[in-house]
Amino acid sequence: MASNHHLQRTSQYQETNQLPGAEDETTIDLYEVWELIKKHIWMLIGATVVGAVVAGGLTWALIPKTYAASGTLFLTPRVQEGEIDINSLNSNQKLVSNVMNLLTQDNIMSLVAQETGLASTEDVRDSLTISNTDNTEIITVTATTEDPRLSKEIATTTINTFIDTMKDSLNVQNIQITDQPKLSYEPVGPSIKKNAAIGGLAGLVLGLGFLVIHMLTDKRLKTREEAEKYLGLPVYAELPDLEKK
């Protein structure tokens, strides 16, 4: 009987003396988070620096550099008696989207692949970027590969093959090259600075996440109010935090 009575009292004590907030939803005190950040500021700075260095280093060491070459085409309007034919200008504006699509058609891409020694039309198409300057009839053809000479060759061959095909097949004579692709040994990617910034941000977020999770899972009694609520007894004395003083 005494043993059963003791077990019953122990069970009642455990039910009435749970940790603060055990039955409530977990909430985050922003002030407490701010204090936690200030306390571990150097750890967060270190996580940010490590993330940036790792991301930048991996980008430099593992991701190959790419090189680009660009050329531009211009759809020239018809000129009559020293004035631009407005109908021709409007026609060229509507023709721009068609030209951009025709540039990467299989018949053009297969010829470029043969000239440049690439394995397939998809290899050529994947290396190309076709863009149009807003409100103009200027079309830019950009080839990007890991070889600067190959990039120039792809861009040049694509432009020349397209113009020859348009003249022979559709008798289109008003497409002019305004800027030939040039050889450049300056890499256009990857961006080490950009990836380092992303890595630094990831390190900071992971550090903050670790601190917040640690705060939410830490069940230690840290304040006088928590101790009184947990024990159900008043606190008559507490030792000062000598480190803060």
From TrEMBL:
Per the record, the domain of life is Bacteria
Stated name of the protein: Polysaccharide chain length determinant N-terminal domain-containing protein
Query: Is Nucleus there in the keyword field?
Result: no
**What keywords does the record list, in alphabetical order?**
Cell membrane, Membrane, Transmembrane, Transmembrane helix
Which InterPro entries does UniProt cross-reference here?
Bact_polysacc_biosynth/exp, LPS_length_determ_N
Q: Where is the signal peptide?
A: none
In which residue ranges is the amino acid composition biased (Polar residues)?
1-19
Q: What is its main location?
A: membrane
For this protein, the parts annotated as crossing the membrane are 41-63, 196-216
Family according to the record:
Belongs to the CpsC/CapA family.
Does Transmembrane helix count among this protein's keywords? Answer: yes
Residues in Polysaccharide chain length determinant N-terminal domain copies: 27-115
Any one Gene Ontology molecular-function term assigned to this protein's record: protein tyrosine kinase activity
Region described as Disordered: spans on this chain = 1-20
Q: Pfam families from the entry?
A: Wzz
Note the topology in the membrane: Multi-pass membrane protein
What the entry lists under PANTHER family is as follows:
FERRIC ENTEROBACTIN TRANSPORT PROTEIN FEPE (PTHR32309:SF13), TYROSINE-PROTEIN KINASE (PTHR32309)
GO CC annotations? Answer: plasma membrane
- Location in the cell: Cell membrane
